[in-house]
Amino acid sequence: MKTFNIVNFGCRASQSEGASIHQELVDARITSSDSPYDANVVIVNSCTVTAEADRDVRQMIRRIASRNPNAQIIVTGCYAQRAPEELAALPHVRYVVGNSHKPIVAELALHASAGHAEIF
To answer: What is the pLDDT of residue 3?
Structure first.
């Protein structure tokens, strides 16, 4: 059974978008996990307000990859929009989705499988 977890960083808009993605996945009958460390798919909804925010996002992605080596990680949000190649190079990142393509994140999560990072 496929499970997912969403890790949100940033502003209220980011939190709201994360909630929308969560609802789309629940509606698709994917099970929500309480932790990114045991989910099959982890969506990191990023922020890029400061260099510290960028560092926090990278650190979280590395932590997820280390603790949950089978996870497929999808990174979206402002940091994904600004520096997609930087994020695509991190371990276990399957998709990097800029803000303009954020509506497809739930669909990507439904079909996430192992492979090289793809940037949208």
So the answer is: 95
Alpha-carbon dihedral 97, 116, 22, 9, rounded to 10 degrees: -60
Which distant-in-sequence residues (6+ apart) come within 8 Å of 112 by Cβ? 40, 41, 72, 74, 94, 95
Helix then strand count (H, E) for the chain reads 5, 6
In degrees rounded to 5, what are phi and psi of residue 105? -60, -45
- The SS3 call for residue 65 is helix
Identify the residue with better confidence: 6 or 1.
6
Residue 114, pLDDT score: 59
- Domains of the chain by residue range: 3-119
- Above 70 in pLDDT, residue 113? no
Q: For residues 47-61, give the mean pLDDT.
A: 92
- The rounded distance, in Å, linking the Cα atoms of 27 and 42 is 17
Residue position matching structure tokens 């509606």: 27
Res 112 pLDDT > 70: yes
CATH number for region 3-119: 3.40.50.12160
